[in-house]
Sequence to fold (197 residues):
Amino acid sequence: DLQQAALNADDPHAYLNGIYDYVKKQAIDSINWYLKRKGPVSFISKLLRFLAIIAATLGAVFPVLQGTDLITKVSWVPNNFSQYGYILLALAGGCVLLDKLFGFSSNWMRYMSTVMRLQTLLAQFEMDWAKLVFKSGSGSIDEEQQNKMIDCLSEFRLAVVKELQNETQKWIEEFRSNMAQLERYTDASKSPKRSGF
Fold:
């Protein structure tokens, strides 16, 4: 880890390579964290959207089928068959609302966006580091080269932390917004219906 790398400060190559391994591992661990957690939210998001599409389609078709010979000839179909369409439409709306309130789709998109940005930062960092290593050669590293390499390591590490902070802040803002929206729905459902008289 970083503490072990710092113990080799007398050897600039080992010291800098130790820090390089540390910051790169931290970035890869962050990428893997998001990739691991995108699976469940992606599945739930797709499931809710699929159910919403099926329910909305059937909800729109049921009233159309009500007056057709296809339905009237079937003895077990109830007379109020078309009313089930409204239930299905409500179910479709509920699936979409559930996805929005719990943020399954938005979480998946935010995770993937963060992963892509982290991967871009990592790729750029690896190329910048390779250039610095090539310039330094295999001999001793002078102070100017050490400073450039430390700056490269520091900038990359801080860029990764900033991406994680930005993603967390977006999650907090979205969570607050969803909770406020849920409270509005709850308050609306609790408010008494006004009489038409």
Q: What stands out?
A: The chain has a mean pLDDT of 83. The helical segments are 2-6, 12-66, 69-72, 83-102, 104-136, 143-190.
